[in-house]
Write a structure and sequence with these properties.
The protein has two domains: about 5-155, Jelly Rolls, CATH 2.60.120.10; about 170-275, Orthogonal Bundle (Arc Repressor Mutant, subunit A), CATH 1.10.10. It is built from twelve helices and nine strands. The protein has helices at about 5-10, 100, 120-130, 135-155, 165-170, 175-180, 190-195, 200-210, 215-235, 240-245, 250-260, 265-275, and strands spanning about 15-25, 25-30, 35-45, 45-50, 55-60, 60-65, 70-75, 80-90, 105-110. It has a five-stranded antiparallel beta sheet. The protein has a four-stranded antiparallel beta sheet with strand order 2-7-4-5, with no helix packed on it. Helix 7 packs across helix 8 (about 200-210). The protein is globular and about 65 Å long. The protein starts with a helix and ends with a helix. InterPro entries: AraC_lig, AraC_XylS_family_regulators, Homeodomain-like_sf, HTH_AraC, HTH_AraC-typ_CS. Keywords: DNA-binding, Transcription, Transcription regulation. This is Transcriptional regulator. Pfam families: Cupin_6, HTH_18.
């Protein structure tokens, strides 16, 4: 399995479309304590996006993605409505996401220069202006496809990256990440990961921190907890899940899970069930 597919199996994302159609005037997009991103797909018209940092003017069909929380205002000329779809992007961990942290504060792509998004966006707007059954769910899934395409594009660009994407592009760290992602149930050690990268323990730890932004141990825990969440979603027993992701005891797994999510595995499952 390729690295991006493996990542998205564990660090899952979900989209929720909150606006589709013609927009005119002002619309504020607020953020709270939860780690969320926002994506706007402009098909026609022009759009200005005001944030604390800057005023972004978009005058051609474009894809605008804020991977991390950033309050902003959409401004459209009342005489010339813009046609767009807006969605919230949620990460599996509401407090921290290696994927969100790996991306720049904003991504703006002109659709005329990136044909790989065209088919998905055509389907998205087709559903946006239909009133058929299930259209909102289909739109949510299509936005998730767009985010995946954005991640693929970011990796393929081979430009200057930070965080997890930089790790995937690193000639040595990528070897350790690939080995880790394939063998989550294995009881990894920093020494073992350094061996996979053909680096000394000290060089590996320093390079990992500088490139990805966290220690190998912290990354390993987050990866295991995210895999555990996917297994818990499937209804697997907590005892089995703990063993499957490399913990020798349920108590050790529960401590790590609580440290990562601020709740026990059972509490996390109960909260997820109530929200669904």
């Amino acid at each position: 399995m390729d690295q991006l597919s493996s990542l998205l199996r564990q660090f899952s994302i979900s989209a929720g479309v909150f606006y589709s159609g013609q927009l005119c005037g002002l619309s504020d997009v607020a953020t709270g304590d939860e780690l969320v991103g926002h994506i706007h797909v402009l098909r026609s018209g022009s759009l200005s996006i005001q944030s604390k940092q800057q005023l972004l003017n978009v005058v051609a069909p474009s894809l605008i993605f804020f991977p991390q929380p950033q309050a902003h205002r959409l401004i459209v000329d009342e005489q010339q409505p813009a046609e767009l779809v807006c969605a919230t992007i949620r990460y599996d961990n509401a407090n921290h996401s290696a994927l969100a942290n790996a991306l720049p504060e904003q991504i703006v792509l002109s659709l005329s220069q990136h044909a790989q998004f065209a088919r998905t966006i055509e389907l998205l707007f087709s559903e946006a202006f239909e009133t058929d059954q299930g259209s909102l769910v289909i739109m949510d899934k299509l936005v998730e496809v767009l985010v995946t395409l954005l991640l693929r594009h970011s990796i393929n660009q081979q430009n200057k990256h930070s965080g997890l994407i930089a790790g995937l592009l690193h000639p040595k760290l990528s070897l350790a990440l690939a080995a880790l992602h394939k063998q989550t149930a294995f009881e990894h050690s920093v020494e073992w990961l350094a061996e996979q990268a053909a680096m000394s323990r000290t060089s590996f730890i320093e390079s990992f921190k500088q490139t990805i932004g966290c220690s190998p141990g912290d990354y390993l825990v987050e990866w295991k907890i995210n895999q555990a969440k996917q297994l818990l979603k499937l209804g697997k027993p907590i005892t089995w899940v703990a063993s499957e992701v490399g913990y020798q005891s349920v108590s050790g797994f529960t401590r790590a899970f609580r440290a990562n999510t601020n709740m026990s595995p059972k509490q996390w499952l109960d909260e997820r069930s109530s929200s669904n």
